[in-house]
């Protein structure tokens, strides 16, 4: 950031900051690796294979997801097999049983982590990119920042901190919009972005169509891979959509998870 006064061209300033942040990130990673090597430590990784295809899940699995399984089975019995997209949508965002709706899926207490949770440099670099994109748009007087699937709000917080080094861009940002359907995640985002909440500049939406009709810089990290998708398979008689049906053998009756070919 100390290079900013020396740079008349703001795009050049963005490049300087990006290089500086990346250099800091690489040096930090190298120091960590060297320290770990000097201590002679090794890391043991245990892989849980209980969910692999062909293995039967234990009783705990069914107890933990019993509500969702009953919901899926009920829908299939009522209207027939579900598309993979419908199955994924219910599994991820069902109001009561959805994976993301009532729990923290990230970090040690969750099932996975993402780059913004590992190092702040990632979000800071995205913030510098937003400034460069705003410049490329012709520096509009009003622009909105939006993030799809913002998780805990960490990426947006880091993005805003880095982009605040550019006063003109900071003044042009007239609102931050988060595309989020999980009440649990919205609470985490509210905590991470409290200053924006107090200023009335933080807004939540359930769909892209709800965003204001103004210039928007939209970012999304590890979002598209979590969206429900339709699956198709090529058979001897042409393409068929893969469906989710019931099969015998689940606890308390049928089990959701079998496959059926559809047209």
TrEMBL record:
**Which UniProt keywords are listed?**
Methyltransferase, Mitochondrion, Transferase
- Catalyses which reaction(s): L-arginyl-[protein] + 2 S-adenosyl-L-methionine = N(omega),N(omega)'-dimethyl-L-arginyl-[protein] + 2 S-adenosyl-L-homocysteine + 2 H(+)
Q: Which InterPro entries match?
A: NDUFAF7, NDUFAF7_sf, SAM-dependent_MTases_sf
A GO cellular component annotation here is: mitochondrion
Pfam families with a match to the protein in the record: Methyltransf_28
Q: What is a GO molecular function of this protein?
A: protein-arginine omega-N symmetric methyltransferase activity
The protein's Enzyme Commission number: 2.1.1.320
> GO biological process annotations for this chain's record?
methylation; mitochondrial respiratory chain complex I assembly
**Function, as annotated:** Arginine methyltransferase involved in the assembly or stability of mitochondrial NADH:ubiquinone oxidoreductase complex (complex I).
Q: According to its UniProt record, which protein family does this protein belong to?
A: Belongs to the NDUFAF7 family.
Would you tell me the protein name for this molecule? Answer: Protein arginine methyltransferase NDUFAF7
Organism of origin: Emiliania huxleyi
- Please name the taxonomic classification of the source: Eukaryota, Haptista, Haptophyta, Prymnesiophyceae, Isochrysidales
């Amino acid at each position: 950031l100390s290079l900013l006064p020396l740079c008349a061209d703001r795009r050049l300033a963005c490049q300087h900051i990006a290089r500086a942040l990346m250099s800091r990130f690489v040096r930090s990673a190298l120091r960590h690796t060297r320290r770990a090597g000097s201590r002679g430590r090794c890391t043991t990784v245990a892989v849980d294979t209980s969910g692999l295809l062909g293995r039967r899940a234990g009783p705990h699995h069914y107890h933990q997801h019993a509500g969702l399984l009953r919901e899926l089975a009920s829908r299939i019995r009522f209207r027939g097999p579900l598309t993979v997209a419908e199955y994924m949508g219910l599994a991820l965002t069902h109001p009561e049983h959805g994976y993301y709706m009532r729990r923290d899926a990230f970090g040690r207490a969750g099932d996975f982590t993402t780059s913004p949770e590992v190092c702040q440099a990632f979000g800071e670099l995205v913030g510098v990119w937003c400034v460069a994109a705003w410049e490329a748009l012709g520096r509009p007087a009003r622009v909105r920042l939006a993030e799809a699937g913002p998780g805990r709000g960490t990426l947006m917080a880091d993005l805003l901190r880095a982009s605040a080094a550019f006063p003109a861009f900071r003044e042009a940002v007239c609102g931050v919009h988060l595309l989020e359907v999980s009440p649990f995640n919205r609470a985490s985002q509210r905590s991470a972005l409290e200053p924006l909440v107090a200023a009335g500049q933080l807004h939540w939406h359930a769909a892209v169509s709800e965003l204001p009709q103004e210039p928007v810089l939209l970012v999304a990290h590890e979002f598209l891979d979590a969206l429900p998708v339709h699956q198709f398979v090529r058979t001897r008689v042409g393409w068929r959509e893969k469906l989710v049906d019931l099969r015998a053998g689940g606890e308390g009756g049928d089990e959701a998870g079998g496959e059926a070919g559809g047209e």
